[in-house]
Design brief:
FAD/NAD(P)-binding domain; 22% strand; 24% helix; 5-stranded parallel beta sheet; alpha/beta; FAD-dependent oxidoreductase; 7 helices; single chain
């Protein structure tokens, strides 16, 4: 591999998941050329965004849906007809790869962005050692880094002392490591339900812990039109105030899907209140009852990956960032794509068109 280089461009997009690719697509429709005017950086080894890192048993359909990228029809592919019997990570990687090729989106890989700094009236994006480029200077930065690299792990006394197996959703590779073990699954979202299902088939016992009682609704999908509007409004309010973003499931609840019905039939939806602390060999409840556990899966969600923006002074002490309609006030060249109200796959695509228009105005194009 040649030595990493310094590059310049009008726009640099950090992240080639759905949000980043959608913005790149709409910028191209406004005449900005990928690889020259627009540079797209991605930390993954290949196409697929965060999906390429998910466990092999996860498939599309059921509780996991993806909406098509803008212009995906031009590739002859659609997630609405994607195979549901193949690993989602493989399907999404293939579809995103075809999309990049069809629309001429030149993604530079692998590039792990360490920090973003001001450089006069421009921005300097600095990459970690081992990246395909060392730095990029641009008038506009679009941070589309998602959440996968920043799993949320709540504070828990004794966690560092616990000798059993601990994994987060991002580190989960499959049920096999939990065969024959007594496993605790922590979290109230769809991933937690998936782990109760998969791990429950091989573990000696699986216990479910959540901070609050989960809410189930009778719709087949997690985000109906009405629930989607409510979720977007709450996320938008938090983003505009610079507060840490609430989890989607805390807003929408869980659909009574075939997965939920299967777990109910198997007796695996007996939720326990969150434990108070961990010991060497298990956990202690708030009633001071010790429960032995061989493993704990932390399915406790994710935080937006915005640490690389801290040098700009836009990330507050609570770990939030003020974002209004995808833009950071006081930073006319800084945009966040797929953040807050744009996080769902529908709103991400719609917002990309608005973001591209605003970027063109900043550039005078």
């Amino acid at each position: 591999m040649p030595e990493p280089t310094h590059r310049t461009a009008d726009v640099v997009i950090i992240g080639a998941g759905q949000a980043g690719l959608a913005v790149a697509y709409h910028l191209a429709r406004r005449g900005l050329e990928s690889g020259r005017d627009v540079l797209v950086l991605d930390r993954g080894p290949g196409p697929g965004g965060a999906w390429q890192h998910r466990w092999s048993s996860l498939t599309l359909g059921g509780t996991h849906h993806l909406h098509d990228l803008p212009g995906m029809a031009d590739t002859g592919l659609s997630f609405s007809s994607a195979p549901g019997d193949r690993p989602a990570r493989d399907v999404v990687a293939e579809y995103y790869g075809s999309y990049e090729e069809r629309h001429g989106i030149d993604v530079i890989r692998p590039v792990t962005v360490a920090r973003v700094e001001r450089a006069g009236d421009r921005y300097r994006v600095l990459a970690a050692t081992g990246s395909a480029v060392s730095s990029v200077e641009a008038r506009v930065v679009v941070s589309a880094t998602g959440t996968w690299t920043s799993p949320r792990t709540p504070f828990m006394p004794g966690r560092d002392l616990y000798r059993g197996l601990q994994v987060t959703t991002a580190a989960y590779t499959g049920a096999a490591p939990f065969a024959g073990l007594r496993v605790g699954v922590v979290g109230g979202g769809t991933s937690a339900l998936t782990f109760l299902d998969e791990v429950g088939d091989v573990a000696s016992e699986v216990l479910w812990f959540t901070r609050r009682n989960p809410t189930f609704h009778d719709e087949e999908v997690e985000l109906s039109a009405e629930r989607g509007r409510v979720a977007v409004a709450i996320q938008d309010e938090a983003a505009r105030a610079g507060r840490p973003l609430p989890s989607i499931v805390s807003v929408t609840g869980l659909p009574r899907s075939p997965l939920v019905r299967r777990l109910e039939a198997a007796g695996r939806l007996e939720r326990r209140p969150m434990f108070a602390e961990m010991t060497l060999t298990g956990v202690i409840t708030r009633e001071d009852v010790e429960i032995p556990l061989d493993a704990v899966i932390w399915a406790t969600g994710f935080r937006p990956e915005i640490a690389h923006l801290r040098p700009l002074g836009v990330v507050n002490d609570a770990g939030g960032i003020v974002v209004e309609d995808g833009r950071v006030p006081g930073e006319p060249g800084l945009f966040l794509a797929g953040y807050g109200p744009q996080a769902s796959t529908i709103s991400s695509n719609r917002a990309a068109r608005v973001t591209a228009k605003a970027i063109a105005e900043v550039l005078g194009r």
